[in-house]
Design goal:
The protein is an all-beta fold and 1144 residues long. The chain is 0% helix and 46% strand.
């Protein structure tokens, strides 16, 4: 069984869940579970939670601007000296802890210079990223100069790297090869990292040995290598690098929309980004989030990575790989200072984080450096006391905190606070919820709290106590202080409880249905006889009970019904004459056994009893009766008041009548209505009208007559039926009528002139009859009212066909009709004619002495217009619509004055436009031509250029070769088919204004064309087969070699010999190939060189002949025959032997 409670009051149903749609801060919610399982040591357990509706604000810190405006700031970073360094325009500046901004390097003018001197005097161009060393040295790169510069602690600047180096791996930094220097980073060991964005590599400089090595990237743009060595991976525009305390290297792979990580063993992986640009994934794994433009990153002391996602804000990747937003709302802009960083707009081009986890943002596009403070941690739901029954039992405590990154629960057992560790009793000790398993009685009143930490702040929750109780059985009894009650009267019931806890809950019931409120008393006024009242007690969570509820005894209610006394009265008569007696009687209900009746007149007691009679009543007297009932359970106090009877008393009256006409002194035939005013005529008075004493009209309170004559007398006799009238008849006053005769009015009008020019005023005059002393004139133009109330009307806005008339309203008595309309005057209005004249010419740009005709076009000139021509304001020409002049000079101005005789011409004269003449002088054109060369080789293209004078804007050129048209319309002509003696000329057709003559011919250019020859060379040898060392002479025979040919002899393709037509060689080897290359200086050769035939030499080696003799015997007897045999080498095919004996 589940019993949910809100602030100690039962809510919800018997369910494992309860939903509340109106919780407020501090509401205490609990649930008591009563187990029905067998053998449960503690069948009842209660858990409590305090609702905290205080929502966490936006995560992260507060954003402020710390430098503004600075042109394109970058590289803002907290230095080791406590100053914040940043770059802007052509400078490096620092912000001191006091907030003062000081320039430390660079001038206002960009450039490159100053190495070896003070950094403050140096010239920089677009410095970007700054890194600082503990000894006060700082480094920065420059985008424009593409150099890396160093400023030592003494403030002296030097260049330590650039993109001009050619060194390979391991080369000194100043010789190392970079294609760009995009970003730099100094690790804790003092080694420098450099991002080569263009070269798609990241390099590391061992600052101790000054050696530079590539640590990531192949140099080829792409994406590959994850899971393998970083040196073999591909990047696409890396832009930033950072190193954490463990030696992990982080790189923004901007073109691949990823962040890559290199572990200390050199293996690369992707830790954020999918490869697609986007802004999704915050709150989840960074590896499946999309990055918008991952441009810059940094890492804090804990190993969290901060990303400047340019145009999207600053994002953080935790050590567990979760990505969150810490600055910027995803929209690039500049807003939100002084508020939560995650609601601000920022570009976040360049970021860094300091040792206190404050973030510095270089808002490059918005000229600002901004700071995001490390966010505070706050606890918005504290742990609350927890009660458990019958140890051992389970319990839990929880907190809720904003911007928390870690939790540590602590316990105080009576000897101070100590951190908890997870064990068999405690679990979740480093989470927001602490669970206790098997709490024992010895743990009663143990106190617990949680230490909550963010990246940079710590907060400690309030303490909560664990309370362990022994279960009791609750008891409730009810009593009532009310006996038998009247229906609707309050009955009060009181409950007395035991073991209900500090905040017991009461549920009152009437006939088993819930009634009342959660209170130990219940008051009701809707009981009926026999209703049964009980109360169910639910013990509060602080009470340890065997069962949470107890039901009281039953009280049966006795109720009498409530009755309402009623009394009504009536009069024997009303609307009576004064002095008439009237009797009032009553009717009553629920009056009881001994009712009391009190009569009242105008609220004053006058009599008692069941009737009342009065003969002194006056109009307005009010009679009523009050009943006092003695019936039991009467509503109220038993009083009831009757209805009121208001009396009307009619007094004695005298009828009167008076007559008033609607008009007197009227015209004959006019209808006049006579109206009566009467008093005391009664409900149905009777009227008798009389004219001159004779009955007329009908029984009506008015009478109308249109046949009256002068002196007629009208009267009326009233017969009244009013009660209590003293007399029945009354005669009115007499009205004597004045009747005037009828007079007809008339009017005629005349105009001062009915034919006029537009705008000319015309006056109209009226003549009237029977107009009276003050007649009214209404003039009309085309039927529309105009003018004033006058017998004349003047108008200067008349148009042709306008009709003028006048309506007379006479003031004469009895004029009939009431108005008279005059005759119509139709106006003839000639329009005002404005004469005009325009002058045109057959041409206003002419050559000197050319006759020009000027013609005029006129409007409203009349029948006989007069023309006066003018040249430069002086009269010329005759009275004619045309004028011709052949003596015009440049700038002469021609005009004409028209005098019009047209009717209504206004004004009478008009002056034409001016025609300003442009008179050009006569220009003689000329042309001369020249060739790019006149002594050429056949087939050589020659360009002939022309020089012209007075050729105009679009001159026409006709080139001629030997008098025949060639080429195109161009100021140049090129020909590669010229023959010796060809003559070239050009005819110029000028379009210059006033060119005279229009066509001229140039000078002639006569060509000398030399024929083309091909040089050749052949060689011979004095001998082609020789013995080694034998000199051989090679001779050449040439053609078309020119006056000074050049000979280049070659042996086996290698230059030998001298510039001579012969070549002698005594070092020839067998197979040597001899040739000669001729370079001709003859004019017009097809090619400048010619190669000879080749001669292959056969060279026999020099052989040293030898002979060795052998004898058939060497020691012999005299005379014995000895045979001598010769053994020879290199003896040739026919050797010759000469034997010798003792030299002969």
């Amino acid at each position: 069984m589940f019993q949910w409670k809100k602030n100690g009051i039962n809510v919800g149903g018997n369910s494992v869940t309860y939903t509340d749609n109106s919780p407020v801060e501090g509401n205490n919610f609990s649930c008591t579970v009563i187990s029905s399982a067998n053998c449960v040591a503690n069948p009842t357990v209660t858990a409590t939670i305090i609702f905290a509706c205080t929502a966490c604000g936006p995560p992260g810190g507060i954003i402020t601007t710390i430098a503004y405006p600075y042109d394109a700031p970058l590289g803002a970073v907290m230095g080791h000296d406590g100053n914040i360094y940043f770059t802007h325009a052509a400078k490096v500046s620092k912000i001191t802890p006091a907030g003062t901004i000081v320039t430390v390097a660079g001038q206002n003018t960009p450039g490159y210079g100053g190495d070896g001197g003070p950094a403050s005097s140096a010239l920089l161009a677009f410095p970007a990223v700054v890194v600082t060393a503990p000894d006060g040295t700082y480094y920065f790169n420059e985008f424009t100069n593409q150099v890396l510069r160093k400023v030592n602690p003494a403030g002296i600047i030097s260049t330590i790297a650039n993109i001009l180096g050619t060194g390979g791996e391991g080369s000194p930094l100043n010789l190392a090869r970079f294609e760009s220097i995009e970003d730099i980073y100094l690790d804790n060991a003092g080694d420098l990292y450099i991002v080569d964005r263009v070269g798609n590599k990241v390099k590391k400089v061992n600052m101790a040995t000054n050696q530079t090595f590539t640590i990531a990237g192949t140099g080829v743009a792409g994406f590959s290598g994850d899971g393998g060595p970083a040196i073999a991976a591909q990047f696409n525009k890396p832009t930033s690098v950072a190193v954490d305390n463990a030696g992990n290297i982080y790189i923004t792979d901007e073109g691949n929309f990823r962040i890559r990580k290199i572990d200390p063993s050199g293996i690369i992986t992707t830790i954020a980004g999918t490869g697609a640009s986007g802004k999704t994934g915050d709150g989840g794994p960074a590896i499946i989030a999309t990055l918008f433009k991952p441009h810059d990153l940094d890492v804090d002391n804990a190993g969290n990575v901060y990303l400047g996602d340019w145009g999207n804000g600053v994002r953080k990747i935790s050590m567990t790989g979760i990505i969150t937003r810490v600055a910027g709302n995803g929209i690039s802009g500049y807003s939100g200072d002084g508020g939560p960083a995650t609601l601000a707009r920022t570009g976040a081009c360049n970021i860094s984080v300091d040792v206190n986890k404050n973030i510095y943002i270089s808002d490059f596009e918005f000229n600002a450096v901004r700071k995001v403070t490390c966010g505070d941690v706050s606890i918005n739901r504290q742990p609350v006391d927890t009660i458990v029954c019958n140890a051992p039992a389970n319990a839990s405590f929880s907190v809720r905190a904003c911007d928390a990154t870690s939790y540590q629960w602590q316990v105080n057992t009576g000897s101070g606070w100590s951190d908890l560790g997870n064990n068999a009793t405690y679990s979740g000790v480093t989470t927001k919820k602490l669970d206790i398993t098997g709490a024992t009685a010895a743990m009663n009143n143990y106190q617990y709290r949680c230490v909550v930490s963010s990246d940079c702040k710590t907060a400690i929750s309030s303490l909560a106590t664990l309370k362990i109780r022994v279960a009791q059985t609750p008891v409730v009894t009810i009593t009532t202080s009310t006996g038998i009650a009247c229906q609707g009267a309050n009955s009060i019931f009181t409950a007395t409880s035991q073991y209900g806890g500090l905040i017991p809950s009461y549920q009152w019931k009437k006939n088993g249905i819930n009634v009342g409120t959660n209170s130990n008393t219940y008051t009701g006024n809707t009981f009926i006889n026999g209703d049964q009242v009980t109360c169910v007690l639910t013990a509060s969570a602080d009470e340890c009970v065997t069962t949470p509820t107890a039901t009281s005894n039953i009280i049966t209610v006795a109720i009498n019904p409530v009755v309402t006394p009623v009394v009504t009265i009536a009069a024997s008569a009303n609307n009576i004459c004064g002095g008439t007696p009237v009797t009032f009687t009553l009717t009553s209900a629920n009056e009881g056994s001994a009712p009391f009746y009190q009569w009242q007149k105008n609220g004053v007691n006058v009599a008692v009893g069941t009737t009342y009679t009065d003969n002194t009543l006056v109009t307005g007297d009010v009679i009523r009766c009050a009943l006092i009932s003695n019936a039991p359970c009467t509503a109220g106090s038993g009083w009831a008041f009757s209805n009121d009877v208001t009396m009307t008393i009619v007094t004695a009256v005298t009828p009167t009548v008076s007559v008033v006409p609607s008009g007197n002194n009227v015209c004959a035939g006019a209808a006049v209505t006579f109206n009566t005013t009467i008093t005391n005529g009664g409900a149905s008075p009777v009227y008798q009208w009389k004219k001159n004493g004779v009955n007329v009209g009908a029984n009506n309170n008015s009478y109308t007559d249109n046949t009256l004559t002068n002196g007629d007398i009208i009267t009326c006799i009233l017969t009244s039926n009013s009660p209590c009238a003293t007399i029945p008849f009354a005669t009115s006053n007499g009205v004597t009528m004045i009747i005037n005769p009828i007079t007809p009015p008339s009017i005629t009008v005349a105009a001062s002139s009915s034919t006029i020019c537009a705008g000319t005023p015309a006056t109209f005059t009226s003549v009237i009859a029977n107009g009276g002393g003050t007649p009214v004139y209404q003039w009309k133009k085309n039927g529309i009212n105009t003018g004033t109330n006058s017998n004349t009307y003047t108008d200067n806005t008349l148009t042709n066909g306008d009709i003028i008339s006048c309506v007379l309203t006479p003031s004469a008595t009895c004029a009939l009709p009431a108005t008279a309309t005059s005759n119509n005057i139709t106006m003839i209005v000639n329009p005002l004619l404005t004469p005009s004249i325009s002058v045109a010419t057959s041409g206003n740009t002419i050559c000197a002495s050319t006759p020009v005709n000027f013609s005029s076009v006129i409007v409203n000139g009349g029948a006989i217009p007069i023309y006066q021509w003018k040249k430069n304001g002086v009269n010329v020409g005759t009275n004619n619509s045309n004028f011709t002049d052949n003596a015009l000079n440049n700038g002469d101005i021609i005009s004409c004055i028209l005098s019009s005789d047209a009717v209504c011409a206004t004004p009478a004269t008009a002056t034409s436009n001016n025609v300003t003449m442009i008179v050009n002088p006569l220009l003689p054109p000329s042309i001369s031509i020249a060739g790019s060369a006149t002594n050429i080789c056949a087939g050589t293209p020659i360009t002939f250029s022309s020089t012209t004078n007075n050729g105009g804007t679009v001159p026409v050129y006709q080139w001629k070769k030997n008098g025949v048209n060639v080429g195109t319309n161009n100021n140049n002509y090129t020909d590669n088919t010229l023959n010796d003696g060809d003559i070239i000329s050009c005819t110029l057709n000028s379009n210059a204004v006033c060119a005279t003559p229009a066509s001229v011919t140039s000078n002639n250019v006569t060509m000398i064309v030399n024929p083309v020859a091909t040089p050749s060379v052949s060689i011979t040898a004095s001998s082609a087969t020789i013995c080694a060392g034998t000199p051989v002479t090679f001779s050449s025979t040439i053609s078309n070699g020119g006056a000074s040919p050049v000979y280049q002899w070659k042996k086996n393709g290698v230059n030998v010999g001298t510039n001579n037509n012969n070549y002698i060689d005594n070092t020839l080897n067998n197979g040597d190939i001899i040739s000669c290359l001729l370079t001709s200086n003859q004019v017009c050769t097809t090619v400048p060189t010619a190669a000879s035939n080749t001669i292959t030499i056969t060279v026999n080696p020099v052989l040293v002949p030898s002979i060795t003799l052998a004898s058939s015997a060497n020691t012999i007897c005299a005379g014995s025959n000895v045979n001598f045999t010769a053994a020879i080498t290199n003896g040739g095919t026919i050797p010759f032997y000469q034997w010798k004996l003792n030299g002969s």
